[in-house]
Amino acid sequence: MHPILGNRIRTLLYVAGWLPIAALLTQMLTRGATLPWQAAVVVFPMCLLYAFICQASWYLCNAVPLRESETVRLITTHATAALVSAAAWATVGWGWAWLLDFSLDANGLALRYRDQVVPLFVSGVILFLLAVAFNYLLITLEVSRRAESKALELQVLAREAELKALRAQIDPHFLFNSLNSISALVMADPEGARRMCILLADFLRGSLKFGSEERIPLAEEIRLAECYLDIERVRLGSRLRIERDIDPFCEACLVPPLIMQPLVENAITHGVSPALQGGAVRLYAVRNGAGVKIVIETPVESESSVKNSPGLGLKNVRMRLANLYNGNARMDVDQQAGRFRVELQLPCEL
């Protein structure tokens, strides 16, 4: 479908654009004579007809692409089409003028038209070539729009593929650690290993339920993080303590699923697990203007223990935030005075 003729508003605007052309041609036909209304009766229907003849050049432009056709072929094709179209248009106009002159006694309108047929023919050629240029411009814009849309679609697909790959890295990484922990407990604490298997099944069930979602409520994300901590508490016992301070007003904010689990795992691996006395993992969340602030904090014995081994978790979260929020979210990592702190600043989407 023609991009102009396929839309009613565009068609009306296009026809309206021919009104000044019709007025100029009417002025040409009545120059030196007093035939204003008779000439208008001839020219305006002619211009309406030629407006649609010129738009037929759109199909010709598609048949002879600008970048894929030789220059000689382009010039020959469009010059021939312009000459034929203008000649046919001028001939039809002459017949229309003669018919009006014969039926309405239009004071020699047909003779006046004959005297101006060459300028009208030349005008027809120019108008057709202008239509060709205009249609090539439309085609170029349409190709550019399609290319931009395709590039955007490919960018979205690439981003989704990267997010799926990043999310897929979480599951085996966590699962391997959990299975190693269960293996270590089988001989020393069979009941603890059984309890850990049950908790692990509950966690995996929840992660499968929400892991395929684009966003989940923060309350569900915190519940998944606490489920992971319950698994680790079977292994670490009283060495692991959990401190929770969650603002109820931010629990409905939507966040990426499993965004906290790598950070909690990182806190256990580098903070609580190496310490003889263990430590506390603090979960803190509060509304921060139009966003939500999430903090995961744990004590560390060595200042370099985390900085030198940021691991997959922190890198994964940082990359996911960059892909999901386009710079509107950030993760700050800070280690000082024996504390390791990860702070997430996310838009609060509801």
Any idea of the CATH topology of the largest domain?
Answer: Heat Shock Protein 90
Sheet/helix structural class? alpha+beta
Task: Profile the largest sheet.
Answer: 5 strands, mixed
Radius of gyration: 38 Å
Tally of DSSP helical segments: 12
Beta-strand percentage?
A: 5-15%
- Work out the number of β strands: 7
Strand order, largest beta sheet: 2-4-5-7-6
pLDDT < 50 runs, ≥5 residues: none
CATH class of the largest domain: Alpha Beta
Query: How many angstroms does the end-to-end distance come to?
Result: 42 Å
* H and E order: HHHHHHHHEHEEHEEHHEE
CATH superfamily of the largest domain, please?
A: Histidine kinase-like ATPase, C-terminal domain
The CATH architecture designation of the largest domain is 2-Layer Sandwich
Q: Give the mean pLDDT.
A: 81
Query: What is the helical fraction, as a range of percent?
Result: 55-70%
User: What is the oligomer described by this structure?
Assistant: single chain
